[in-house]
Amino acid sequence: MIVYSSFVPYIMSCSDLLQTKYKMSEVKSATFFGIPYEVGIIGLPPVGLYADKHGHRTIIAIIGSIFFLAAFTVSAFLPTCDDSCNQELIPIVLIGLGYSTYAGVIWGLIPLVVTEKQVGTAFGIGMSFMNIGMAITPEVGGYIVDNTTKDFGYFGQSVFFIALNVAGLFLHCLIHYNDITYFDGILDKPYK
């Protein structure tokens, strides 16, 4: 869920980032703003289908974390533009790929680790943790943008998102290791 805590605030600030750092018009930035969701529309069904048929859910979640990490790293180091440019398109597409791979498998893990009677409670707890992250990280990200100067504060915000995704990647690798070591890889097996 830590990965969502960077995705949602990035999307929330994406239009402002594009208009401020890259001098895009409001209309053009609105078009770019929707790209991660458009990639998700195309990418989520095949990822979910693959996970159902072949498993590998924790590996796919790790790949999603890597996409997010790459997106925020590229975004952090892209230079500003004096005239409208499209260079943030690369991180935006990577965000869409990360969203497609991550969201396509993460919620499907819950029914595999709890009893049938606990599924609703487990989803509720998962959503609560996700909402805690999404309540805190936009505030922190906004504070960083407002109080730093490099690339209008977006460099610092990207570094914050990179840190969140490094933590998320570590946790996903830990989950994968524990699943393989102690639970016979139940999370990576296809549904029966």
Question: How does this model look, in words?
Answer:
By secondary structure, the protein is mainly alpha-helical. It has one domain: MFS general substrate transporter like domains (Growth Hormone, Chain: A, Up-down Bundle), CATH 1.20.1250.20. The chain is 77% helix and 0% strand. The protein is built from 8 helices and no strands. Helix 1 packs parallel to helix 7, helix 4 (57-77) packs antiparallel against helix 5 (89-106) and helix 4 (57-77) runs antiparallel to helix 8.
Mind sketching the topology for me?
Blueprint lengths: L3 H18 L4 H8 L1 H20 L2 H21 L11 H18 L3 H4 L5 H29 L6 H29 L10
Short description:
The chain is mostly helical. 77% of the residues lie in helices and 0% in strands.
| Range of strand content | under 5%
Low-confidence stretches: none
How much helix is in the residues? Answer: over 70%
- Terminal CA distance: 26 Å
For this structure, the CATH topology is Growth Hormone, Chain: A
What integer is the average pLDDT? 89
CATH architectural type: Up-down Bundle
Number of strands: 0
- CATH homologous superfamily label: MFS general substrate transporter like domains
The largest pleated sheet is described as:
none
What structural class do helix, strand and pairing data support?
A: mainly alpha
Estimated radius of gyration: 18 Å
Describe the structure using short key phrases.
mainly alpha, 77% helix, Growth Hormone, Chain: A, 8 helices, 192 residues
